[in-house]
Amino acid sequence: MYSKGFRPLSIATVVALASALALVFFYAPNDADQGFVQKIFYVHVPMAIVALGGWVAGGLMAIKHLRSGDRSWDVRSYVAIHLSIILGVGVLVTGAIWARASWGHWWVWDEPVLVSFLIVFLLYCVYYPLRFSIEDPERQARYSSVFAITAGAFVPLNFIAVRLAESFTHPRVLSQTGGNLPGEMRLTFLVSLAAMTLLFVTLWKLELASKNASAQLKRLRTKLNARLAA
Amino acid sequence: MPALPLDEAGKYVAGAYVVFFTLIVIYVAIIGSKIARIERELEELNEEVGQGPSIDDGPEVRPPDQMAGLEAPRG
Amino acid sequence: MIRAARAILVKDLRLELRTKESVPAMTLFTVTVYVLFHFGLDRDTLEGSLASGVLWVTLLLAAVVGVARLFAAEREQGGIDGLLLAPVDRTALFVAKAAALFLFLCAVEIVALPAFALLLLGPDLLEPLPRLLPILLLANAGLAAVGALVAALATATRAPELIMPLLLLPLLVPVLIGAAEASEPLLRDDPVADRLGRWLGLLTLYDVVFVLLSVAVFDYLLED
Fold this sequence. Notes:
The complex is a heterotrimer.
Chain A: H1 6-27, H2 41-68, H3 71-103, H4 112-125, H5 127-132, H6 137-169, H7 183-229
Helix pairs in contact in A: 1-7, 2-3, 2-6, 2-7, 3-4, 3-6, 3-7, 4-6
Chain B: H1 6-55, H2 64-70
Chain C: H1 2-19, H2 22-41, H3 48-68, H4 72-76, H5 79-85, H6 90-119, H7 129-155, H8 160-171, H9 173-183, H10 196-217
Helix pairs in contact in C: 1-6, 2-3, 2-6, 3-6, 3-7, 3-8, 3-9, 6-7, 7-8, 7-9, 7-10, 9-10
């Protein structure tokens, strides 16, 4: 039952999103260096963190799938990865907008998080062609799970590698993704992060409920057809 | 690069948030259309189940008494 | 498991010695790409970060060529089903294939490095060579482990030649970063081992993680 507890969850999501927006535009002060443009940070960074978390979670669900053989874990893994890829598009686009507004270029190599994210995103884009070019459903689930685990382990490794590389060529321009934010900004950021996470979980459950209903419908139909034919 | 003036900066910030909301709305719309399809199929199935017994009475749908009568042992 | 792995490895090596498919192709590919870089960059000599970058990107691409053929023998002769019917430990298969790829890469580098020194490298290669060796070995290990894993993943798809490079190259970015950054200060006129430990550490971490992961996960692949 994927839609259990859905209403309180979606209400919480709406409340969190509204609060986050209010905080961003009415409470958080303007950044001294970047001015108003810095507000993009409150949508861009939480999206990135949630997307990365979603990918890693997809890998963990894939482990559960392989160990238990229960294919519902593979479906959960697929939806988590799929949602994170959509968020990933958002991350790259908002990142580009931010780069353009801050430094005048649509892409910069200075931000190791963004660069690392691009590599991970390119990797996960291969998930769809990999998955959908395997016809046997059981095999498809198994191989997708192996991919999800491999890619999930890759996320932190890649981040470390890129961070090490960039720190020597480009000094960290933005320390804001770290922890040294002034109090009001930190609160706003945390609320935005919570809102993004709730949104992710809500949409994840929504898509799972839809997939579940669709699969049950298919089974019902085959059962009905068999009975009618007999 | 010095901070952009508010009117220019506003466009970029608005753009970023618009991207975010557009993605969500598109996603919800796609799920919505999937659910619409599920509803339609459920309606179809309901129709078929409603008509079923009157069209598709198979040999197994028979009151037990008749069977007992047929199976009277031969002497 | 070791015995089974060694048996498969010996078979693969014998096959390669007989048919001479992968290693000469990979080597020729590498040298050709050096020539391409000469024209593409319009440079006679390279040093420092440019040399390191060209060297490692080319080796990475050569590894892709090698991975493409890794399970080819099994696929073509229908042998992979034969292998799987026998109770072969999947881990043994992984170890054998990764070891084979590792050895192929070492063989390619024995020719490719002198070729690079001859064609493109400005500074001397012999002097920093002892410090380049651990970089090469650790990088090869990473390339081999991930290459074998991706090769197995791709065999199930309808278009393995397309999926395999797309999967492999992003996964190899940390290897590229570690190897190129480590090699860069060594390929200068006055070679120094600058922060070498850090990059070797990164490569080692990568190797450990992906070897362990591949061993754990390989059982679920190639199962029919």
